[in-house]
Each structure stands twice: as structure tokens, then as C-alpha cells.
Amino acid sequence: MSMTDWSIPLKHILNCPVRIATMPVSDWNELTKQAASIWNANESSEHKSALPLTEGSRVEHNRKVWVVVGQDNHTVEALEIESEALQPTELELISWTVQLQGAQQKLSKLSASAVSESESFALKLSEWIQEQLESEKPSSSIPDSLTAGGKLFAEMIPFLLITEQPNTKQTAYTELEKLLRSFLADDILLLPLKNQEWLIWGPVSLLNDADSEFENDAQEDSIEDNLSSICLGLHEMLASEWIGECHLAVAHPISPAKAIVETTALLREAINLGRKFHVGTNIHLPWMLQLERLLNAIPEGQRSRYLEHSLKRSELFVEAEMLATLETFFALDCNVSETAKKLYIHRNTLLYRLDKLKQETGLDVRQFRDAVLVKIILLLYKVTKRN
After folding, report:
1. CA distance 52 to 20
2. pTM score above 0.85
3. What is the count of structural domains for the chain?
């Protein structure tokens, strides 16, 4: 708010004339010399030739008081107030208010100047992305003014980070950017979206680094494994070095300039589905959530009726031991030997559990058709149990 804006209500509050006066610096110096008393001074008036030009400094003379609200090398801007009816404490309060406003304005300018060039660009691009996500007809490509000189036309790896800590957007950009540059590469793009939500773009060269960890050199056969490995390592670093509990999704490399809006929506959906169907999981991979995406599109009433019908056939589905067994069995692609090792049980013990499920439900998870039905039941049970 400008001085002119709040001088009007100040006039009504004080019930006396108030106006904004602009004078040359020489006139201010002369006024202070002639003043009968100088307020807010650190030295006695006889040792003072002119009042320092700082916001809130004031001088009283001929039943008027002038309070400095701004100055430059040539002029002084001051509140001119009819002071005859004002008490000393009221004058002190006016000076203090002006000083406070001046300090706030300086702090705002310092904060604005402290924003790095990369953060300034990121905020502009983030604002555009949010507008497109909320639009009924979003644009499919970034405007030329936001393509960073063509940098965003190259393929990059997109990540979406959602933290569990509030109020991190405004305070942690520099810290997070520094961490990402040290872990991923210098050539990254960090975009703060909603509060607690960050869109991260890393160089596609990260896949080559991750691919060296696999024995199979064919990148097309291991790209999703590589992306999963990168995402896992990034999550561990962020959880331990920066923000603690957080969720992270990753998608296939793509050009930000051509699909940044669609990619952001895809990653948001992946995290939402992962948090909904897989509580306790922090890494969310879109290509692993296709069945969850399909089930989520079914009306809730139909899902509940199907689950109610299925669970009437057996209580085995809701037993903790059976749930853990089936979850591990499906996670290991229905491999009996690997599941037994993972659960630290004998192979025959696992077979006994699967046979028991078949006897009581008629569903043999070693058969593809039945395995799909049981997988659907488990996913629907998770959602229904929490609701």
C-alpha cells in the first residue's frame, strides 16, 4: 500500500489534516535547523544541524510535524500532520509505523532480488503449467518464451515429488536444487507446483549410468528397471538428506516442451493411485498401475458390490498371513520358489496355503485367470477397508 493510500485513513483516525509533502533535501535540512524541537534524536538538539534521512524520522515546527516516509539524493517525501492536538505517544506511534513499513518494503526487495535466475524461470513455468492443468482445453506445448532457449526440446526424465511436510515450497527451492544437482546432474530442471509438490526433470543420460548396473546391455529391455532404480535411489537420498517422508513417481523420458502438462497429470495420477491402492509404498511407477487405473474408473458402488459378493465366499482374503502371502506371490510374478524364499517358509508350506485358498474359494492363483480375479479382489479390499 502506498503512502497516499494510507494517509487518507490516517487523517480520519487522527482527526486532523494529513497530506503527503515533497521537498528538496536542502529544504528539509533548513527545516530541521529551524525546528524548536527535534523528535527521535540520539543527541541533544543543540548538537544537531539536520535530521538523518531515514524512514520514521520526524521534525516538529510551527504546530506541524513532518515524518519521513521516503527519500532519494534530491528530494524528501514526508507525512505533513497538524500536530497541535496530538500527544507525544501518538507521534511516536506514527514514526514507528512508518519505520516498520519501510523495513518490510526493504525486506521484500531483498527477497525478490535473492531469487535466482533458475528459480525465477521455474516459477513462471510452474504458473503456466498450473493454468493448463486447470483449463478445460489445456495447451499441448510450452510457449516459446518458456522453452529456455530450446533446452526443453531435448528428452528428459520426469519425476514428481510430493512431501509430507507443509510449507516447503517457498523456503527450500535452493536447498532442494542443490541436492538434486549433486545426486542427478547439474543439468536438471526443478519446478515448484502446489505446496509440497515438485516437478523434477533430469537428463536422459542417467539411464546410461543406471544401465551399467545391469548385466543385460540392451537398454530397451531394462529401461523401466533403470527408471525404477534411479527413482528408488533418489527417494532414499531425499528422505534421508532433505525432507523425510515423501512420495516419488517417475515416467519414461520425453521432451518437456511437447508434453510437460500431460506428463505432470500422469505422474500425479500415479501417486494418487499408489497412495490409494498401496498404502505404505513411496515409489509409484505408472506402468505398474494399469490395473489400479482401470479399477479406479469403476463407480464405487459397483466396486463395493463386487467385493461384497467375493468376500462372502471366504474369510481367507482378509487374514493377515494370507494377504502377505498373496502380495508377495504376485510381486514375484507368481513364482512359487522365489515366494517361499522371500517369506522364509518351506516351499510345501506355501503350496499348502495356496491349496487351502483353492479349496475354500475355488480360485487357484497358479492359474492366470484366477490369479487376475484374486489380484482384483485384493486391490478392491484395500480401498474398501480404508473407506
Report:
1. 19
2. no
3. 3
Here the CATH number for the domain that contains residue 208 is 3.30.70
- Note whether residue 292 is domain-resident: no
337 CB burial (10 A radius; 0-12, 13-18, 19+): exposed
Distance CA 114, CA 1 (A): 22
Residue for grid cell 515546527? 61
Q: Does residue 370 share a domain with residue 348? A: yes
309 and 322 together in one domain: yes
One domain for residues 78 and 224: no
Whether 129 and 278 share a structural domain: yes
Residue 153 makes CB contacts below 8 A (sequence gap 6+) with 147, 255, 257, 258
CA 306 vs CA 137, 295, 358: distances in Å = 36, 11, 19
**Domain with 326 in it: what CATH number?**
1.10.10.2840
How far apart (Å, rounded) are the C-alpha atoms in residues 231 and 210?
Answer: 11
Instruction: List phi, psi (to 5°) of 201.
Output: -120, 120
Q: How, if at all, do strands 58-61 and 37-39 pair?
A: antiparallel
Residue span of the structural domain in which 52 resides: 3-114
Rounded CA-CA distance 265/255 in Å is 15
H or E, element range at 246: strand 246-250
Q: What is the pLDDT along the chain (387 residues), one digit of tens a residue?
A: 445 556 667 767 777 777 778 888 888 787 777 764 444 444 444 444 444 667 777 787 777 887 888 777 778 888 788 767 677 787 788 777 777 776 666 655 545 445 577 888 888 999 999 989 888 888 878 888 888 777 888 999 999 999 876 544 445 788 888 888 888 887 899 999 987 899 999 999 888 876 655 555 444 557 999 999 999 999 999 888 877 788 999 999 999 988 999 999 999 999 999 998 887 889 999 999 999 999 988 888 888 888 888 776 667 777 888 888 998 999 899 999 999 999 999 999 999 999 998 988 888 999 999 999 999 988 888 777 655
